[in-house]
Amino acid sequence: MHSPDLLEVWSEAEIVPISALEHYAYCPRQCALIHIEQVYEENVYTLRGAALHERVDEVERLTEEGVVLEYALPLWSVRLGLMGRADVVGFLSDGTPYPIEYKSGKRKVKYHDDVQLCAQAMCLEAMLQRAVPKGAIYYHASRRRREVAFTSELRALTEQVIQETRAMLLSGRTPPPVNDARCRDCSLIQLCMPEVIARLQREQTP
Ligand code: SF4
User: Fold this and answer.
1) Is the pLDDT of residue 167 over 90?
2) In contact, 67 and 61? CB cutoff 8 Å
């Protein structure tokens, strides 16, 4: 679903899915494999993630400690050319939105998660005309939340990631593998073959 205003400003190809930001911030090649080449290899991480998302993938309202929770809320920003969906948005007693993203792993600071959450916050601000100063990542494995403040630095970084992601998606080109520690936890390692490609590149270098 697109906001009508979004398509007045951006072409369909220019609109960046919010989920692509997390992928790009983790590894641009991962983002290209998923969003350009449309591959998705299920492994234990993605299966657990999918199961988790199935649980929260229903639009319903709950009231918990005075916070109203909205699940699977559609999000967009005309200024940023972004669209996607929030796992959960809490509305505090004064109406302030508080985005919550669910992750299947343990509590850990990961800047690509923060970028995705910050993009959700900026969409909520644009849609609801309310300041969104903080949100949280909920880690299913450890049942813990990590609060994220949407600082000016994180907002600037998020805008940079949006621009870079859009440029890469429009280029239609998949970058070479990073072939570093990120690959160990990457759901696409079997398809990406980072070590094989890195070896071939070394062999072709004079
Ligand atoms: S295996 Fe490594 S290089 Fe390939 S997509 Fe995953 S993180 Fe990126």
Assistant:
1) yes
2) no
Does this model's pTM top 0.90? Answer: no
Residue range 112-158, pLDDT digits in tens = 899 999 999 999 999 999 999 999 988 877 777 889 999 999 999 99
Report the CATH number of the 4-204 domain.
3.90.320
Ligand 1, atom 7, lies closest to the CA of: 183
Distance of CA 75 to the CA centre of its chain: 12
**Cβ(84)–Cβ(121) below 8 Å:** no
Q: How far is the CA of 156 from the centre of ligand 1 (A)?
A: 25
For 99, the 3-state DSSP assignment is strand
Element (H, E) at 59: none
| Cα-based torsion angle of the residue sequence 119, 123, 125, 131 in order, rounded to the nearest 10 degrees | -20
The Å distance, Cα 27 to ligand 1 centre, comes to 6
Domain parsing of the chain, residue ranges: 4-204
Q: Residue 22: in which H helix or E strand, if any?
A: helix 18-26
Alpha-carbon dihedral 181, 185, 188, 189, rounded to 10 degrees = 50
